[in-house]
Design a protein that fits this description.
9-stranded mixed beta sheet; 3-stranded antiparallel beta sheet; 14 helices; alpha/beta; 17% strand; 35% helix
Length: 356
């Protein structure tokens, strides 16, 4: 291998170069190297102001699936790298039971997890790669061992996020704000709510208003303008009757897609993995584990975390769910589209493009 070819390989290995590298076409060995790559369709050269070689990225997840029979340390560490977030639904009483399949929202469930269930599961994961643990409380006042759980989670570097309804026990939320400043709290408001909870307005929490119409959006926009120092966001919710609202205000047109500000890395990722879902596991009140609540379970908290990850990589319920359905396959712009979301599964639609 000549020094020039070695230099090309070194630059291609640097992810910051996004699989493209400039090269000198005057050297015969380099030209032969480029011709060899193009002859096996492994890459393509092109001329701009200078000569460039580009290689399409290949996400080697299939290799990890083939390694599933191994249980040595290297494989376990490799598997854990895929898991970055866990979302935990504690269960309990909740007035709504249709939103949790679309967004981070509490579930109405007779079964309820307790702190020991969650602590033991996090301990069993034993991963340094977790970046976020979120907790969706259906009724925070009936959760057993709340402060024991928060003390345990505070001992880790990952972010801890709590989702709680605005009409839940505000005194407990206030106490968490005062005593656990590293814990982020997201207060959820029902569609149609128009006021911020007066009991929480002075605390550093995010106020998330669920909306099901344009009118609700504009109402919350006016509310947000009144409270410049308060974190307020709107999240669309499908209620079974507002498909037209989604088509007008949530779905994307061809013009929206073409005006999106993606870079090469984003487009490459859209081809091989789901940016929204990759690396996320859900723990439900019945102790079942999912990669997508709208898909079959992967197992339970009794199963090895490695087996759960391998099952997801094998079955592809969520992490590698991309726009490869019949409608999107025909579209030239499919990888400029955002990754598929839970909305599409709940609404039983194939894509979010208004032009199809």
């Amino acid at each position: 291998m000549t020094e020039a070819i070695y230099d090309i390989c070194e630059k291609l290995l640097n992810i910051d170069n996004l699989y493209s590298v400039e090269y000198d076409d005057d050297e015969a060995s380099v030209r032969r190297f480029i011709d060899g790559i193009e002859s096996i369709n492994a890459g393509k050269s092109h001329l701009e102001d200078t000569h460039f070689l580009s290689l399409p990225p290949v996400l080697n997840l299939q290799h990890s699936i083939e390694m599933q029979s191994r249980r040595d340390y290297d494989f376990q560490d490799f598997a854990l790298r895929h898991l970055t977030k866990v979302k935990i639904y504690t269960g309990g009483k909740c007035v709504d039971n249709i939103f949790y399949k679309q967004i981070d929202y509490p579930i109405n469930s007779e079964k309820i997890l307790n702190s020991k269930d969650i602590i033991n599961w996090i301990k069993a994961i034993r991963s340094q790669y977790l970046t976020e643990v979120s907790l969706c409380f259906s009724d925070i006042s009936e959760f057993v061992g709340l402060y024991e759980l928060l003390e345990f989670l505070s001992g880790f570097k990952f972010n801890v996020i709590i989702y709680v309804r605005a009409d839940d026990n505000y005194a407990i939320i206030q106490e968490i704000c005062r005593n656990y400043p590293r814990v982020s709290i997201n207060v959820l408001y029902h569609p149609g709510d128009e006021k911020i909870s007066s009991n929480l307005i002075q605390y550093n929490v995010k106020h998330t208003f669920l909306i099901s119409s344009e009118a609700q959006y504009y109402t919350i926009e006016r509310l947000s303008n009144q409270y410049n120092d308060v974190q307020i966001e709107t999240v669309p919710i499908f209620n079974g009757k507002n498909y037209d609202f989604f088509k007008r205000s949530v779905f994307l047109s061809k013009e929206d897609i073409l005006s999106s500000q993606w870079d090469k890395k984003d487009i490459f990722m859209h081809q091989v993995l789901n940016v929204n879902n990759f690396g996320v596991l859900y723990l439900m009140p019945n102790k079942k584990i999912y990669s997508d609540i709208n898909q079959p379970e992967l197992g339970s908290i009794c199963d090895s975390i490695y087996d759960l990850i391998i099952k997801e990589l094998s079955c592809n319920y969520s992490w590698r769910w991309i726009r490869n359905n019949d409608s999107c396959q025909k579209c030239l712009y499919r990888y400029l589209c955002p990754s598929p979301t839970s909305y599409e599964r709940v609404m039983n639609i194939k894509c979010i493009c208004t032009n199809l």
